[in-house]
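Q&A log
Question type: sequence-to-structure
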Amino acid sequence: MLIRPINESDNEPLSVILREVLIEMQIPKKASAYDDPELDNMFLTYQLPRSKYFVVEEEGRILGGAGISPLKEGDEDICELQKMYFHKSLRGRGIGNKMIQICIDFAIESGFEKCYIETMPNMLKAQKLYLKKGFKYIDSPLGNTGHNACPVWLIKNIR
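Response status: OK
Response body:
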């Protein structure tokens, strides 16, 4: 298994796998990552300053990923852990834990103070992992992610 920064050639296979996972997880297709225009050109999206997306590749096949980017219309000291989804074949193997750590390490190197994430109520295993990694629930969303269908918000102090 290989974890590496996204390449331009990853755009299509990544958008396919991420949408497959979103459907499997019963994420609404509107106001979520599913209809986010960034999903079709993740390489370009994560070329912005203080942004980076990591993919998980196994046997030459992209099976998921996670990224960090400044929180849109938010405090400049807050980043967002974004689009962390994995094919079912990767789940339960510690990949989520490892990817969060890689993303948090990048966020710290990039000068962020806090990391924010939005998720869905039915994604209980993901929430359990976020809590284990030090995220705490908050009562309202931060910034303007455009993912209004995600009603669960968490934040972590990373400094």
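Response note: The mean pLDDT is 92.
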